[in-house]
Every structure is written in structure tokens, then in C-alpha cells.
Design a protein that fits this description.
- This protein is mainly α.
- 65% of the residues lie in helices and 1% in strands.
- It is built from ten helices and two strands.
- It has helices at residues 5-33, 36-44, 59-77, 82-96, 105-127, 145-172, 175-183, 197-216, 222-246, 258-282, and strands at residues 2-3, 129-130.
- It has a two-stranded antiparallel ribbon with strand order 1-2.
- Helix 1 (5-33) packs antiparallel against helix 3 (59-77), helix 4 (82-96) packs across helix 9 and helix 6 (145-172) packs across helix 9.
């Protein structure tokens, strides 16, 4: 299956609008905080400087900006961009849904706009597909078996780790706070556009699990979901490592409580697994079974048009 040119242009425009929306909020936060470095540290989890202003964005917004821009470029360049458009739209829909009950009016309007754009992406990816025009028209290649299985194992492991952390917090925190972690209640301090932490974990587990299954079966669409999962893994791991380094926790790793040590190890796992998944799935696909871009040998030429055009 390929994507028609009108659908590709529509998808690119929708992705560009998503990226522009995130960029406007990020620029607004830069004006409030006054420093790109401070904003980056806020995304990494350091909120000690909020006396100078408060950020409405989080690391999720930065990642969605990069992902939306990448999906727009893929839609313009490739006729096999349906999976990239579908993955971007689906994840954006899931992450922006909690914004519908956000008390901040600006965040609510933004959630409505982005939900509409994301839904348009999913619809465009679904209705804009068409069968290959010829039996020898190139199709998206499948990931190679070795890299696909390795990426699937890493993604499944990370999905399990995130699930175990949520189960741990559910047993350690009061029930009210546990519920607020998924609904964004008053007991949770977060940026206006950020999804609640428990909700974010739930979406990431779904993304990592879907990408892992797609990698194991070497699905043609699995590359887009796997790369998207790798970006979230690497970004989250890098942010957590930067925060622990800023607080000088790595030097005292042996003296940290067991939970803090596991948190640091989880950050390194996320960063390394994310980079590995990106490298494994970004490589060249398996050419075995892929149709040749040329007609098979001995195939008769196509029939002339009827009625023949003038001068034929």
C-alpha cells in the first residue's frame, strides 16, 4: 500500500500545524523563563527555579515537536508514509486527551486543536492509502530479522520496567494520589500541557508494547512505531540522567536508597535502549521478497492506449 499525493500533502500540513502549535508554546515558555537552558532543565525535572516563571510545556511537547516535524518530512519525501502519519496521530491523540479536563483555558484550547489535527492525521493515513499500481511497484521493506528481534526484546523489556514502576508507586502512594497520577488531580504538580505521569506511563507502555510486537513479526509498519518509541525512550532516559547528574547523585550512587539506585539504572536503560532501537530499526530493511522496481523478465509491454492519442 502507498499513500496518494493529496493525502501526503494533507498529512504534511497537519504535522506542520502540530509542530507549529508546540513551537508557539515553547517560545512562550522561553519568554517566561528567559533562558533556553532553564527550560531544558525544567523538562529534565529540575523545577527549583520556577520563582522566575512557570513553564506550560514539558519534555513531551519537545518530543512531539520533533516527531511531528519528522513525520511531515517523511510525508513529503515518501509515498510509504502512512505508518508515520498514523503513529504520530495516534500517539498525539492519546497524550493530549487529558488536556480536555485541564482547568487552564489555554491548555484546553490547545488540546482541542491538537486532538482535531491528530484525528485528521489518522483519517488521512487510513483513507489516503491505495494499492500498488503495479505488481512490481516497490513496497516498504520489512526490518531484518536480527535487528527486529533485538529491538523487540528491548522495547518489551522497557514496557515491563515502566509497568513495574507504576505498580510500585500504586502500592507506595495513597489511593487519592495514585488516582491523580492518571487523572491529573490537584495533588499532582505538573506543567499545564503535560499529561499526568501515570497516564503518560500507560501510553508509553502501550507504545512500547505495540512497537515490540510489530518488531517481532517484522511488520512493514512496525518501523514507524519502533522509531517513535525509541525517541521517547532516549529522550526520557537522557532527561533523567541529566537531572541526576545535576543533583550529583551519580557520585554517591553507592549511598543511595535502593529505589533511587533503580531509578538511575532505569534512566540508563531507557537512554541506551532508545539509541539501540533507533539504530536497529533505522537501518536498511530486508530486500528478500521485495518486488523489483522493474517489470519481470519476459513480461509483455503494456497495451497501447485506446483510443490512441493524436500523433501516436
Amino acid at each position: 500500500m502507498t499513500v496518494t499525493r493529496p493525502a501526503r500533502l494533507t498529512g504534511a500540513a497537519l504535522c506542520a500545524a502540530l509542530a507549529l502549535t508546540a513551537a508557539v508554546w515553547i517560545l512562550k515558555d522561553l519568554a517566561a523563563l528567559g533562558s533556553p537552558v532553564d527550560l531544558a532543565w525544567y523538562w529534565a525535572g529540575d523545577h527549583h527555579f520556577l520563582i522566575r516563571g512557570r513553564s506550560a510545556t514539558s519534555l513531551v511537547d519537545a518530543v512531539l515537536l520533533v516527531v511531528s516535524a519528522g513525520a511531515a518530512a517523511a510525508a513529503i519525501r515518501s509515498r510509504h508514509a502512512a505508518s508515520a502519519l498514523a503513529a504520530t496521530g495516534t500517539v498525539t491523540l492519546a497524550l493530549r486527551l487529558p488536556g480536555l479536563w485541564e482547568p487552564d483555558s489555554g491548555a484546553l484550547v490547545t488540546a482541542l486543536v491538537e486532538l482535531g489535527l491528530a484525528a485528521g492525521l489518522v483519517v488521512t493515513a487510513a483513507v489516503g492509502r491505495r494499492p500498488a499500481a503495479a505488481s512490481y511497484e516497490p513496497l516498504p521493506t520489512r526490518p531484518r530479522t536480527g535487528p527486529a528481534v533485538a529491538a523487540g526484546v528491548l522495547l518489551a523489556t522497557c514496557a515491563l520496567v515502566v509497568t513495574l514502576w507504576e505498580l510500585y508507586w500504586a502500592t507506595e502512594l495513597p489511593l487519592e494520589i495514585t488516582v491523580d497520577r492518571f487523572t491529573g488531580g490537584r495533588s499532582i504538580m505538573k506543567a499545564a500541557l503535560a499529561p499526568p505521569p501515570g497516564w503518560l506511563s500507560l501510553i508509553l507502555v502501550g507504545l512500547y508494547g505495540t512497537a515490540a510486537v510489530s518488531a517481532f513479526v517484522r511488520a512493514r509498519h512496525g518501523r514507524a512505531f519502533g522509531l517513535l518509541a525509541g525517541v521517547f525512550l532516549a529522550a526520557g532516559g537522557l532527561a533523567e540522567i541529566a537531572r541526576t547528574t545535576r543533583y550529583e547523585l551519580l557520585g554517591d550512587f553507592g549511598d543511595l536508597p535502593g529505589t533511587a539506585q533503580l531509578s538511575v539504572l532505569t534512566a540508563f536503560l531507557g537512554l541506551l535502549a532508545g539509541i539501540a532501537v533507533l539504530v536497529l530499526l533505522a537501518g536498511r530493511g530486508d530486500p528478500a521478497g521485495a518486488p523489483s522496481p522493474y517489470p519481470p523478465a519476459g513480461m509483455p509491454p503494456p497495451a497501447p492506449p485506446y483510443p490512441p492519442p493524436p500523433g501516436w
